[in-house]
Amino acid sequence: MNADRKNKGQHRWIAAAILLAAGLTVAATPLPHAWKNWRYSRAIDLPSTDSAQLAGIVVPQDAYLHAQTWLPDIRIIDEGGNEVPFVRYAREGSTNSKTLPTELIENSFAPGRYTQVMLSVGTSAPFHNAVEIETAETDFIEWVSVEASDDAQVWRIVQDRAPIFRFRKESREGTQTVSYSPNNARYLRVRILDGEKQFPVLRASVSYKTVEPPERSSMEATITAERAEHAGENAWRVDLGTPALNIREVRFAVNPAEFNRAVEISTSEDGVMWSSFARGEIYRFRRGDATEEHLAVAVPSYTTSRYWRITIVNGNDAPLPGVVPYIYMTPAHIAFEQQPGHSYRLLYGQSRAQAPEYDLARRTDAKQEDAAVVGNVGPEEENPDYADPKPWTEKNRYFLWIVVGLAVLLLGYSAIRSLRRTSSPAA
Fold it and tell me: What is d(CA 133, CA 145) in angstroms, rounded to the nearest whole number?
């Protein structure tokens, strides 16, 4: 009995050792020779299929640490090492706005109550959902209500209360556009809810806006509070770990409070020299039960800087309590044609690779990409047969400098000896 138990125990250990060795073998499996210059890969897990279909994955955030900036070295291969065409895309969202012919038919003031503007968008008005107030005022904040009517007799509230503001002394344009519930009423009644004096409205324009929100994902970054250049400012230093990430937005978590603050973002390649990169503003207003807030600053363009500095400019106000910034990026999607009976890998980490060009991008549209079968990407594996694609001269720069230095010394020594021979008196 004891012998049987001992044998069974040994068999279990042997089986475990075999499984472990097999696992290590899989992890250490080299890529096909044609891909020896790609250092990293990940298995792609897809549901099996009986017919060709479009499959999609999201490039993992930690893959950016080892990929080139802008990801030109991304590749997809099958189990035979064959290159698989793919299309890469990002969901950046869109905003479309169509301005309607707008007639201002009343601009009046009710002392102690409001400034009122009545607008007409025609007898057969299409749907609309936004009105922009144009004013010569440079520094203000006002609350606005909007009502709609088909006959200018019976009115219905489409926006109870929303702010318009501008602080030009602080170089902050704010917003002068009020959004409201979509409707196709002919008339709009806009009231600026300040009864102390008439608000100067030059003109107003009505529009219909459609917004497709962009896709954003929170990313892990090293964010540390630091001493700001000016007293009273909130400031943070951000280390992204890599310059390859597609950062598109900085969002803020702020304790419940009313505020309006400017935000400045600077970037640096080395964490020493900084340059201004983006500006914006965050705010929260409350009037009664209504709250209007905007707690994000959009990043207007791409940057390859690894280090960021985020500053909230408080002016003479006390620093915002409990405020924390978060970094958001736009995920990179990869879509490719999955064939029955095949498996696939994601490759990256080739320092000299150029972005590929496939006609799949011209054969697919956004609807097809959105309908792609979703796959999962496995853990990162390093290619044990990796060969650095850099030329020998680039990989051995220091050795070359040593050789050049020795050559210069030898040439100098030869020149000095020649000069000595020339200057010595003839026997």
Answer: 12
